[in-house]
TrEMBL record:
Keyword Cytoplasm: yes
Span of domain Glutaredoxin: 12-73
Protein name: Glutaredoxin domain-containing protein
UniProt keywords, alphabetically: Cytoplasm, Redox-active center
Species in which this protein is naturally found: Vitis vinifera
Keyword Lipoprotein: no
Cellular compartment(s): Cytoplasm
Annotated InterPro entries: GlrX-like_pln_2, Glutaredoxin, Glutaredoxin_subgr, Thioredoxin-like_sf
NCBIfam families: GlrX-like_plant
Amino acid sequence: MRIQRLISENPVIIFSRPSCCMCHVMKRLLSTIGVHPTVIELDDEEIGALAAHSADSTSTAPVAPAVFIGGTRVGGLESLVALHLSGHLVPRLVEVGALWV
C-alpha cells in the first residue's frame, strides 16, 4: 500500500537499494535535465512489495532500481537511458508536470 501511495503522489520516483550506483546515475541524468526525483531506498521486505506491484511474468528486469514517471513503471537505468536517447523522456516529464519548458 505504501509503495502504491508513493508512486501515485510523486511525478517521478526512483526505488533503490542502499548504495546503488545505478540509482546515482539515474538521479544525475534526471537532475541534468532539471528534474529532482523522489528517491526511496527499500529494504528487502519493501523490495518484495515492489516486485508484487511490478509483477510481469515476461520481464527479466531487476525490481530495484526502478523509476516510475507519472505512475507508470519505466524500468531500470537501461530503460531510462533508452527513453532519453529516443527523445521521449523530456516530453513525458513535461506531460506529468515534473518539468516545465
